[in-house]
Design a protein that fits this description.
480 residues, alpha+beta, heme
């Protein structure tokens, strides 16, 4: 009996010692892993760092969020955090941003999946993203290069500016430019022939869908997300109707006016499978998102910045006047060669893209456990490529809060230091088209019109993207 009790005691003691040893070993392993994560903190339970992020981005100093991380943990260019309900790694140095965006083996598309865009259609956009990207790049830059759309863009710009100048009451400049760019997208991707009433209706419902992308996903009446889901259903039906009408016209018209979507509908994926009708609808919604936001926001802010800096406005206008003076009398309208001669205007556009970065971050996700700059990136964690922090880095761009197109004189930023259209395999395929649209808009605006803001210097809403808080009420005055 005594021998049995001693045996049990020895077994228990051995187990306790072994358990304690293993526990300490696991604790040391966990501590080592925690130490290998980037510096930072995970914030409050459940909320993480989202509250401090929103506080910064709802102020007039959004850079304070990243600057606080730098002050607390040093200028490592990489931090851990818990944002938007996910464990995240923030990357905010140019070199590290470039590494993430060009490493397709370890990082993938990481935006939250929302049925506001995809709905219930079983279309795996994430797995198809790279194939769609390659297809769009081919279409936008080879089959239908930006120069082929110059006449279409020019006509819409001229007509729109004339309409604005005839309005007796002030316009909301932000909303009107958004509508104008949406009309451009429809003309380029669907071709001419779409009724203006249909375009206006689609733009209205698209706007509700866009707001829902950044809302808490509560699908209950009264919430923005629910309104977005309902608006998407209407938008999808309207797009279906427009695509159906196009099919009928193509059958009855031997020379139909085609758009980019016609080529997309006929093109095969690498696996030989063409896009079906419902996938084309989702693709169009995605193109609305990609095509409208950057183009309209840059056109809006470039115009506002120039009119807030008269000496820069004079310089930009002078360049456009010189281009017109060199034009032969027989020439009507812009040429692509003239667009390429707009050197100063190109600097204005780049400076606007830097100062009013379209989104604060590009979302990626770690496909595998990997290391970046010596720090562990756990598999499945979000990786937020904080491009706005790079664009506002005073070590790259002195006096970053100032609008200085001259900073681009003989300045070529290092790889990763200027990312308005991302880089690597995720580079926006429509970047050149967007710049062309903005250049044509500014050319005619600067030559013939004047922006008179009712509330100049008003506050900016920085989340989800930087926009004038009051939508910039203004009069558009025709000068000649």
């Amino acid at each position: 009996m005594e021998l049995g009790l001693w045996s049990i005691a020895i077994i228990v003691a051995t187990f306790a010692v072994s358990f304690g040893f293993l526990k300490k070993a696991y604790e040391r392993l966990g501590q080592q892993q925690l130490k290998s994560l980037p510096p930072g903190d995970m914030g409050w339970p459940l909320m993480g760092n989202t509250r401090s992020f929103l506080r910064a981005y709802k102020s007039q100093n959004p850079e304070s969020f990243i600057n606080n991380l730098k002050k607390r943990y040093g200028k490592t260019g990489i931090y851990k955090a818990h944002l938007f309900g996910k464990a995240s790694i923030i990357v905010c140095s140019g070199e590290l941003c470039r590494k993430v965006l060009t490493d397709d083996n370890n990082f993938q598309w990481g935006y939250p999946v929302s049925n506001v865009v995809g709905g219930d259609v079983p279309f795996d956009y994430m797995s198809s993203h790279r194939r769609l990207h390659r297809l769009l790049s081919t279409v936008l830059n080879q089959r239908h290069p930006p120069s082929s759309h110059l006449g279409t863009i020019e006509k819409i710009v001229i007509n729109t500016l004339e309409e604005w100048s005839k309005m007796k009451e002030p316009i909301l400049f932000v909303r009107e430019v958004n509508k104008f760019v949406f009309k451009l997208i429809i003309a380029i991707f669907l071709g001419s022939g779409t009724d203006d009433t249909d375009i206006a209706s689609m733009e209205e419902y698209y706007r509700k869908v866009y707001y829902g992308l950044h809302a808490t996903p509560i699908n209950i009446p009264g919430f923005a997300y629910h309104r977005a889901v309902q608006a998407r259903k209407v938008l999808v039906n309207k797009i279906r109707g427009v695509l159906g009408e196009r099919r009928e016209r193509r059958c009855n018209d031997p020379n139909p006016n085609t758009g980019i979507i016609d080529f997309m509908a006929k093109a095969d994926y690498e696996d030989g499978r063409p896009l079906n009708h419902e996938e084309l609808v989702i693709l169009l919604i995605g193109l609305f998102l990609a095509g409208r936001e950057t183009t309209s926001r840059t056109a809006i802010w470039a115009t506002i910045f120039l009119y807030n800096h008269p000496h820069l406005l004079h310089k930009a206008k002078e360049e456009q006047e010189e281009i017109v003076k060199r034009r032969p009398p027989s020439q009507k309208g812009l040429t692509f060669t003239e667009i390429k001669q707009m050197k100063y205007l190109s600097k204005v556009i780049d400076e606007t893209l830097r100062l009013r970065t379209n989104v604060f971050s590009i979302f990626r996700e770690a496909k595998n456990e990997t290391y970046l700059n010596g720090y562990l990136i756990p598999q499945g964690w979000k990786v937020l490529v904080w491009t706005s922090a790079v664009h506002m880095d005073p070590e790259i761009y002195p006096n970053p809060n100032q609008f200085l197109p001259s900073r681009w004189d003989d300045f070529i930023p290092k790889a990763g230091a200027f990312l308005p259209f991302s880089t690597g395999s995720s580079t926006c395929p429509g970047a050149d088209l967007a710049k062309l649209e903005i250049s044509i808009f500014l050319h005619y605006f600067l030559l013939n019109y004047k922006l008179v803001q009712l509330n100049p210097g008003g506050p900016v809403n920085y989340f989800p993207s930087p926009d004038p808080a009051d939508n910039c009420p203004a009069k558009i005055i025709k000068m000649r």
